[in-house]
Amino acid sequence: MMAQTEKTEEESTLINLLEIDGVMLPVISKEIWARVCNFQARPDDLILATYPKSGTTWTQEILDMIHNDGDVAKCQRATSTERHPFIELTFTHKEKLDLDWANEMPSPRMLKTHLPSHLMPPNIWKQNCKVIYVARNPKDCMVSSYYFHKMTSMLPDPKSWEDFFEKFMAGKVVCGSWYDHVKGWWAAKDKYQILYLFYEDMKRNPKREIHKMLEFLGKTLSEDVIDKIIYHTSFDVMKENPMANQTGVPTHIFDHSISHFMRKGMPGDWKNHFTVAMNETFDKHYKKKMEGTTLTFCTEI
Ligand code: A3P
After folding, report:
1. Comparing C-alpha atoms, which of 183, 138, 134, 166 is closest to residue 297?
2. 114 is catalytic
3. Which CATH class is domain 17-289?
4. For the chain, which residues make up each domain, given as ranges?
5. Rounded Cα–Cα distance for residues 185 and 190 (Å)
6. Ligand 1 pocket mutation pick from 2, 48, 53, 149 by most atoms within 8 angstroms of CB
7. pLDDT tens-place string over residues 245-285
8. What is the pLDDT of residues 104-119, one digit of tens each?
9. Pocket of ligand 1 (CB under 6 A)
10. Where are the beta strands (DSSP E) in the chain?
């Protein structure tokens, strides 16, 4: 049903996926994982946590704009991958580990992670760091992830859409099960300083969600600045911003001719990919996996 661009064996994965506690993580080695586990947080660190393809880059841009009081030039000081380190992951074109970069960074730091809550470095909880978690409905997350796997050499070839659909539901993808991730963080929010947001809410009412972020961060900005942030972090504007649209990543890592990183940016694209049968299968599986949780998602706006 969809054009296939197969990656050759050599270009299929540039980073190792290490299995920790049954979760495939984008961590280069056991040594690096040991360092991630020992990561020394600082009380004023802000952590942005997401399951992959849930709006990380978008939220990063919003938070950077908030941090810089809406100063566009300051937010264009470097590309997204060069502004805020990932805790567990380093893009393959970089010479220095993001972990080392993070350790050298002056405070206050903003750090990104795709780790499930139970695999977070314990010191982050000990230091009571603030975490903003963004969740996205699984259907769009799956479609976005499928295209991302196709365009990046950092991840294995997704094979066919049908194959990927099965793998995603089974949690046999990078960062593990979407279900475990969103539910784990949902439970964690009752124990730690976590603001749990949804991609679809950000899309529907960015102003309301930015106000939530501001309140959580204990910061105030004028409505004019907030409007400016909404404009500069809108999909259409970010797509044209070379510091935010990920075109700065070398093409052998992100091949935008296969699929743009800034692809659709809309809830509901899953409808163009799920067949009726797939949707029924998925809904049944979802119901079972989400039984007993108060967490709900909307798949269109
Ligand atoms: P699609 O592939 O559905 O378009 P992440 O940054 O976590 O990898 O998430 C990438 C997804 O967020 C992509 O989804 C991308 O288009 C979308 N995205 C990026 N910037 C966005 C923005 N400003 N508004 C809405 N969606 C955005």
Report:
1. 138
2. yes
3. alpha beta
4. 17-289
5. 9
6. 53
7. 999 999 999 999 999 999 999 999 999 999 999 999 999 99
8. 999 999 999 999 999 9
9. 50, 52-58, 140, 144, 147, 233-235, 238, 262-265, 269
10. 18-20, 23-25, 46-50, 110-113, 130-135, 194-198
